[in-house]
Specification:
The complex is a heterodimer of chains A (134) and B (384). Chain A has 134 residues and is an all-beta fold. Helices cover 0% and strands 50% of the residues of chain A. In chain B, the strands form two sheets. A nine-stranded mixed sheet of chain B has the order 3-2-4-7-1-8-11-10-9, sandwiched between helices. Chain B has a two-stranded antiparallel ribbon with strand order 5-6. Chain B is of the alpha/beta class. Classes of the chains: A mainly beta (134), B alpha/beta (384).
């Protein structure tokens, strides 16, 4: 039976129903970061608290890579998702219909998804965003 | 920093930028250095200091090039600063001369992308970088910029293609471009897609090249030329943290660097007669026009459509053909664009000459691959 593991430790809490990305928030200036930082680059404070990011956001930009890159076969949709509740943007692979054009502002939600399979058969999982309703 | 002395460009030299896998980067660098020394008309032994610029593959760039052109036994420094490497070494030499540490020095830059360990691969993020692990690459980042330009600022595929068409047309007049071929819209959109909407012809080709520049004081310059070109301002700046907040179009790094350049040189963007800028990907030239102050934020597309960037237009951009045509040997591009602007100010740019050019900007921006953001930029401003 092949193993299954998350591609990076400490970034996601799998609540069973849906993943929650874990960032941190500066307790001094309130800025939120993902991935977590060791100090706040904005105010240099080291007072950081873990924060669960909102699961829903909007599409800021996306593209589809059409050649093999990193561990991904083409087509590989990749986007920047803006999380308005956290005032933060992040990069994530997308689960979308590559033949459909998505407008900026499309509502998206985070899901746990397979990313790639290692040579030894280990299945690597990560987070992706897909369209959602309100 | 208040410079104490004016700095002048005494010699420039570059190779053809194209594919030369049979040549080592050092061999390319030697060609460029010899050309710069010959252009300056000086004895090589006058050079007091050297800065070498190369991003990949080996050390001791300056020492290894200059030993073959008669320069040794002087202080030498080698620098890596991503796409801004060439602009950075020009800046470092400028600082030495402006501050009085040296009177004359040489910059030698070279890069072989065709033989480099990174050649032929999609330039990817640094090892362990989160976004790189998720599939971000240079072309993907600029494809995201293109998406925002189209969604937010009304750019079309025709606007993106126009940048490549214009710059390839300019390259047809540049003897330093290996590839001199006009492109059509159909060729651009039908080329191989890399990251939607960027096809290969909206991205720079993989090339090799070298460029070299000799800078000196006014006193030395006047002994060798009656028409010295002044390096009036030379600045390098790294990105503020907010540059990584994913406003893909309005680049705070370039905006701030341009502001400081104008303030230092005592000019405004309206005084520029030409610009050579980093157009490794077509959308960059569109976002640059507002960051550099040529037009207001939000008016990039109408500015580009006005023809202002053509040779003969209000402020030609990339009359050399740009990185889109000449490619981007990382260490060398930042120096090549200074050589190019100098040629226009001297009146020696041949068929692609910007007539009456007196003020020219050479801009480079690099990074993008650690933390997904522009990380370092350099602007050299030349005046006659």
């Amino acid at each position: 039976m092949s193993e299954k593991r998350f591609f990076m430790d400490g970034m996601v809490r799998d609540t069973g129903s849906a993943p929650v990305l874990l960032g941190n928030r500066c307790s001094k200036c309130n800025k939120v970061f993902f991935p977590k930082v060791d100090f706040c680059p904005h105010c240099l404070s080291e007072g950081l608290e873990e924060r669960e990011l909102s699961r829903k956001g909007t599409l800021y930009a996306y593209t589809i890579t059409r050649i093999r890159v990193a561990n991904f076969e083409p087509p590989h949709p990749l986007g920047i998702i803006f999380l308005p509740d956290d005032r933060l943007s992040l990069v994530a692979p997308l689960i979308i219909d590559v033949n459909e054009k998505l407008k900026a502002g499309t509502k998206m939600e985070v899901v746990t998804a397979p990313l790639w399979v290692e040579e030894d058969g280990t299945r690597i999982y990560g987070y992706k965003f897909r369209r959602c309703e309100e | 920093m208040k410079p104490m002395r004016d700095v002048f460009i005494l010699g420039i030299g570059q190779t053809v930028f194209g594919k030369f896998p049979q040549m080592t980067p050092i061999q390319l660098g030697i060609q460029a250095a010899k050309a710069a020394i010959q252009d300056a008309g000086i004895d090589a032994r006058l050079i007091e200091v050297a800065y070498g610029g190369r991003s990949y593959d080996d050390t001791q760039t300056a020492e290894n090039i200059l030993r073959y052109v008669g320069i040794a036994g002087i202080p030498m420094y080698n620098t890596e600063n991503a796409c801004t490497t060439g602009a950075t070494v020009v800046n470092q030499l400028w600082k030495d001369i402006a501050s009085g540490i040296h009177d004359i020095g040489i910059v030698v830059t070279c890069e072989s992308m065709t033989t480099s360990s990174k050649a032929g691969r999609l330039v990817g993020a640094a090892e362990g970088d989160l976004n790189g692990t998720l599939g971000i690459t240079m072309p993907a980042y600029f494809a995201l910029i293109a998406y925002r330009l189209m969604e937010e600022r009304g750019a079309t595929l025709e606007d993106l293609a126009y940048i490549s068409i214009k710059n390839h047309r300019n390259a047809c007049m540049n003897p330093y471009a290996m590839y001199r071929k006009d492109l059509t819209f159909e060729e651009i959109v039908n080329a191989k897609m890399i990251c939607d909407p960027l096809t290969t012809l909206l991205c720079c080709p993989v090339t090799d090249g070298a460029a070299s520049i000799i800078l000196c004081t006014g006193g030395i310059a006047r002994r060798y030329t009656t028409k010295p070109v002044r390096l009036a301002s030379s600045l390098v700046l790294s990105a503020p943290y907010e540059a990584w907040d994913y406003n893909l179009i309005d680049n705070p790094l370039v905006t701030e660097l341009a502001r400081r350049t104008y303030e230092t040189a005592g000019i405004g963007p309206e005084d520029l007669d030409l610009i050579e800028l980093h157009d490794a990907f077509a959308p960059e030239e569109i976002t640059a026009v507002s960051c550099l102050g040529l037009c207001r934020t939000g008016e990039e597309v109408s500015y580009i459509r006005s023809g202002a960037s053509e040779i003969g237009g209000r402020c030609p951009i990339n009359p050399s053909g740009g990185l889109l045509s000449l490619g981007h040997p990382l260490g060398a591009s930042g120096a090549r664009v200074v050589c190019e602007v100098a040629q226009h100010l001297r009146g020696t740019a041949g068929d692609r000459q910007v007539k009456g050019a007196k003020v020219g900007m050479a801009e480079m921006i690099g990074g993008y691959l650690t933390g997904l953001g522009p990380s370092i930029a350099g602007i050299n401003l030349l005046t006659k």
